[in-house]
Amino acid sequence: ASELAEVLVDNTSLNDVYIGGEYLGDAGVASIAKALKVNTTVRTLGIIGRKMTPEAGRALGEMLNHNTTITCLSLVNGNIGDTGAQGIASGLSQNTTLEKIQIEDSCIGATGVSALAEVIQNATHLDLSRNIIGTEGAEAIAKVIKNSCKLKYLSINHCDIDVLGVRDLAKALSKNTNLGELSVACAGIDDKGMCALAQSVAENRSLQVLTITYNNISEVGKRAIIEACARSQSLNHL
């Protein structure tokens, strides 16, 4: 990672950077983040590494506070937790160029999700899958759905969302006019949650793709979503 960081400082042609491995940790991420403070060509940054801790999140947040060219950030399989997510959020609060954000399987809870949700109004794509977002996290994401005029894609698969969280999401979705794709697969949604989601799908006028596979629903939930699809004026893929 340190060798790559040295290259990034002066490189003027590299657009996409993907790095990962079992040995990639905070020091490697910090060196890359430092280089990207001054790099002006990289548009996509993807990092995979189980040894990342909250320090990696803070380093990336500091980078985002200075970088004005990266439009896509993908962070997967890290242990950055809520503190690391808050560090990233701190950088995003000053960043206006990042459009696609994926922070998947990164041990983030409701606190981290809420911090991110407050500062991602410019995002068009958001993927927070495989994090335990909880009711509070779902409520925070619902506010993004309600208030953002740019968000087109949202994925919160494997997030164990309870019925209260789904109701918050559904209420926001019913009034949203921009979201085109929503994925809530394996999210622990039961019949009550699916019925609430179905009602919002029927009312929404922008959603085209909905993924709800492997949730905890019976024929009641299935029937509700099928009827919603029949009523929807925009949905074309389930």
From TrEMBL:
Keywords: Repeat. Pfam families: LRR_6. InterPro entries: Leu-rich_rpt (IPR001611), LRR-containing_regulator (IPR052201), LRR_dom_sf (IPR032675). The keyword S-adenosyl-L-methionine does not apply. This is RNI-like protein. It comes from Nematostella vectensis (Starlet sea anemone).
